Amino acid sequence: MLSFLLLAATLTLPPDTSTHTFDKGLQVEGVARGGRRPVNTDHVVAGLVDGSINLLAVKEGDNVTPEAAWKPVEAKDGAFAPGKGATYLLLRVSSDEERVMMLDASGHTMVYVNNEPRMGDPYGSGYASLPVHLLKGDNVLLFGHAGRGPVRATLRRPQAELMISDRDLTFPDILPGMSRALVAVPVVNAGTSTRTLAVSTQADGADVWSAPFTLAPCSIAKLPLAVNLPAGGKPGDRISFRVSILDRGVPLAEQSFSLARVAAESTHKRTFMSRIDSSVQYMSIVPPPKATAAPALVLSLHGASVEATSQAGSYAQRPDTVIACPTNRRPYGFDWEDWGRIDALESMDLVRAWYNTDPTRQYLTGHSMGGHGTWNLGVLYPERFAAIAPSAGWLSFDSYASAGGPPYAPDTAMGRVFQNARATSMTLDYFENLRGKGIFILHGDADDNVPVGQARDARAALDKLGIAYGHHEQPGAGHWWDDDKPGAACLDWPAIWETFAASSLQPNAKAAVRPPLDARGFVEGTFKRAFDRSFTLVYSTAGTPDVNAWSLAKARYDAEQWWYRGNGNARILSDSMFMQNPLEGNVILYGNAETNRAWGLVMDTDAAISGGELLLAGRSLKGDDLACLMCVPRKDAPGALAAVIGGTGLRGMRATERLNYFTSGTGFPGTMIFRAGLWRNGFDSVEAAGNNTEPVWK
Q1: In the chain, where are the structural domains located?
Q2: pLDDT of 651-689, one tens digit each?
Q3: HSE-up (13 A, CA, CB side) for residue 30
């Protein structure tokens, strides 16, 4: 039986109640200064880190800052309206027993459940239903508003301890001749223990077994699976298959799904296994109306909130041309930067192989966020594209999303380290690489989403460099516009195709201004590189109970962020499990040299991080409030990387919880050392930072 305690009121629910939607809470406004920056301030996070905020004791009128106090708030039709500025919503629930409930919530960036961070649903996708561990007695849920709309929150009893979810599936269409399909299915562990399980898929009597997988307590993982397909069939048929989860041969959960057969010449989805994280991703393809030798390849990038299937549906088929629409890993994803950029290039390489496309006729286009991706990939990879055509595209975060906001970083030696870590986001710095390319710029002159000034600024930059281009501003048109012809006019525009037809990729094409990219497409020497090459998240078991609990919770939170933001598959293992079977690829360790048993195996660095002290480049820093991000070569696996997310004590470790390294437009150096006071003091608390060089010290 659950009861819900808010302020002085207690609501006692009937024993048979299986769900409850929150309708009362406490709210505080204007307590953070966030954005697409690696260092932000947040007084609620600061209070949780230094212990000055005890969520169980918070009451109406308590101040977070002199100007911001908690006040009562009620939901209207189950929705808590966002406040002014950065807002937190505190809800309490009292349980008469320890139990796991499913938290169905939306409109929040994240939520602390009894001080443990969990992923939110800022885009209202509806698939971020998470199992949460409630303790006997009082529990606290603290939601960070996403600013996109109201917060809704419901707790419901899980149907079983282990469940297969149908909320977030990645499935392909089945083309003639396909014998195997790659799919991805979420699996939920609503228990409080780690589970190592087996999974099989069965279609037409043929079983496919995957390697055993491990699920952390109260977690969700999107599993990549293969399905053997029966021969024969025709377009329109459906192929049924069953996914089974087993423990020592005993089925614990089963669910049936189906795939659709389609004609080879129809617009369709294809799946592939990403080299980033061994997850299953999809792309949508518009093939030519009939097969042709060495067709042209057009890579088309979708806008924010748009699925690749919708992007493909905006095109009419074109003879002798394959139009490939990658996903950016999610409809919002990574703005075609970071892992979104790599997804686009992985998709492009696969389509080149599948269709044997003409290497001299490769073109790039996209709308809105995809227009930004067109500018960004076009200038960073000029050797790949003969022509580019951004539609309603913005140039950079500084010119569009962050215009008029606080500076990204201070103009100091330390600040420039952080600036350099996001160098590839500065699209205009590489416009020289467009010389000799076909360029067509399309925009509506009444666009109220991406101002037409973005297109005009791009044209001014090209004019200054003496680079030729074509352009069109549609009179009176907004962000998305169309006509009565096949294909969406703001994408499938005739002059774009004319530009492509007149452009051919030269065999010696190269960048005149060399972008600071490594071979995998990340900024050289930076921290984000760690989340690549089928990485594994390794939490500690050799620390104190509090430190080990933090380590597991932080690894799970990062895995949830990766899944939600990147449609990803992040493996979570304890240090002991990893030591028994050190997996290939990159490794991220949580904790420090004393708390994480895998440190000595994988870390190849002179840095020493232990209880109360951090040694780096001959300098010693002391205190339990030091936090660390670090990415170095992996000692036991040449070519792979090892990273650390941790600190010298629990305060320092907790200070890493809300760093936004999965947010596009943020650059994190390969080494970043800071004090826990960062959440109040910003860059003043950064002690050292560096990218593949000796660190810059405070």
Answers
A1: 2-158, 160-264, 267-517, 527-697
A2: 999 999 999 999 999 999 999 999 999 999 999 999 999
A3: 8
